[in-house]
Design goal:
The chain is α+β, with helices and mostly antiparallel strands and 454 residues long. It has helices spanning 7-24, 30-40, 42-60, 90-93, 126-192, 198-232, 255-265, 267-288, 330-395, 401-435, 442-447, and strands at 26-28, 68-84, 102-122, 239-241, 246-247, 293-301, 314-321, 451-452.
Length: 454
């Protein structure tokens, strides 16, 4: 006779996959989540690569003042004809059939190994402008990386605390369903004893079924939030946030402090500063084309025996080059570069204005969210007391089933509203720091929060 497995063994087998999944879940506080995002984000990695590329290009321009040295080797098959006038010897050579001038023709194969060096002495400012432009490109790449980092951390705050909100809403929905289940059970007993009508019983069941549907929606919302955060942090097993929803009851720093921080740190402002510097470098490059260039040069021939008659053994010198005419209007190119500077300056003024407006708006919303949250403390206490009184009154036939349902749903709404208010505060604070280019400061603000949603 085969022994049946015990109940504990069956529960162990069923629970094993769930335990395995729990082991894969990554617990992270918000600061650690930020660090993981920086390490795992492909968008940030792409900007890192772009920044390194611009830094390498800028490094390449530092040696523009050094000479260019080229080595060249040629294999030639050539023919050379020379004419030598006889001058006063022509009458003497004529009787011998020698014509004037003498003609020599040579056909041969030769090699030409030559080293040539060119040293820029004066370039009209082209080198310094090119170097300044390369430095500005590094600044723009650095600002682009900061903007991407700011964007990614902002997305993380929404996903991280969005999952926290979804978990709290799910817990509230479960409590509401459980409370309404108890109410339906009480109503069934009272109906059997004839103390309440069938209509009141049906009211309780309808409310419970509505709450059950809301519970299923909350489960789906949490699954979506889990997938979003896990994907963002490249954590296939999921993430368990350990930093709670919380609010700092104390007022924020003055608005002017945030405006100053935004004007000094916002990545888009830094990017447009770099664009302006690039435009100024472009003006310098175009102006350099209106000036002469001076250069030194030298050349050395390693195969003198096989060299052409016109090839020197070696040569050194100084050259001056000035373009008289060009297919493009050089003065118009200077004007175009100057207009690019004006465009960058106008764009910079506009973004500074928009950033200041955004900071003002987000500061006001963050402070309003903080005050809304604090006002909900009394609402929650009133909802809890109301539910307690309605349940007692219902048992004593002093309240209807609908009164209990309304009180149960009222408490659930108060709990949800308080949790949502904490989430709104964090998101408003996140928006404020985002508009200041300081998303990395959010963990510090959360650490000092004194109102925690348990």
């Amino acid at each position: 006779m085969t022994a049946r497995p015990s109940l504990s063994a069956i529960l162990l087998i069923v629970a094993a996959p769930c335990q395995a999944q729990d082991i894969d879940v990554l617990p992270l506080d918000f600061g650690s989540a930020q660090q993981r995002l920086i390490e795992q984000s492909d968008a940030i990695a792409a900007q890192d690569a772009n920044l390194r590329a611009k830094e390498a290009q800028e490094g390449a321009t530092r040696s523009l003042h050094r000479p260019d040295v080229d080595i060249e080797a040629q294999l030639l098959e050539y023919q050379k004809t020379l004419y030598l006038p006889l001058g006063s010897l022509a009458p003497i050579a004529a009787p011998f059939g020698i014509r004037d001038p003498l003609r020599f023709r040579q056909e041969r194969t030769a090699t030409r190994p030559i080293v040539t060096a060119t040293l820029p002495i004066y370039t009209g400012g082209q080198i310094s402008a090119t170097q300044a432009g390369a430095r500005a490109q590094v600044g723009e790449a650095r600002a682009a990386r900061a903007a991407t980092l700011n964007d990614q951390l902002h997305r993380l705050s929404q996903a991280y605390f969005g999952q926290q909100l979804a978990e709290h809403v799910l817990a509230v929905r479960r409590d509401v369903v459980a409370g309404l289940e108890r109410h339906v059970s009480d109503a069934e007993k009272l109906e059997r004893e004839g103390f309440i009508s069938r209509a009141q019983m049906l009211q309780a069941e309808v409310a419970r079924d509505d709450a059950a549907r809301e519970l299923e929606k909350a489960k789906a919302d949490l699954a979506t939030a889990n997938a979003l955060l896990a994907g963002l942090l490249r954590a296939p097993g999921g993430v368990r946030p350990t930093s709670p929803l919380a609010v700092d009851s104390r007022p924020l720093e003055p608005l002017d402090e945030f405006k100053t921080a935004a004007l000094n740190n916002h990545p888009q402002i830094e990017r447009l500063h770099a664009v302006e510097e690039q435009a100024r470098a472009g003006v310098g490059i175009q102006k350099s084309k209106l000036r002469p260039t001076v250069y030194g040069f030298g050349q050395y021939n390693f195969d003198r025996r096989n060299s052409l008659l016109t090839d020197p053994d070696w040569s050194v010198g100084v050259g001056v080059k000035y373009k008289l005419f060009s297919g493009t209007g050089r003065q118009q190119m200077v004007e175009a570069a100057q207009h690019s500077v004006a465009q960058a300056q106008a764009g910079l003024r506009e973004i500074q204005t928009q950033v200041a407006i955004g900071v003002t708006k987000n500061w006001g919303e963050a402070d309003a969210a903080r005050r809304r949250f604090l006002l909900l403390d009394s609402t929650l206490a009133s909802a809890e007391e109301n539910l307690r009184l309605q349940r007692l009154s219902y048992r004593e036939q002093q309240a209807t089933s609908l009164d209990v349902v309304d009180a149960e749903l009222g408490l659930g709404k108060a709990l949800t509203d308080r949790t949502k208010a904490a989430f709104d505060y964090i998101q408003a604070l996140s928006d404020l720091l985002y508009s200041c280019g300081q998303m990395d400061r959010l963990p510090a603000y959360l650490d000092r929060a004194d109102k925690v949603i348990a």
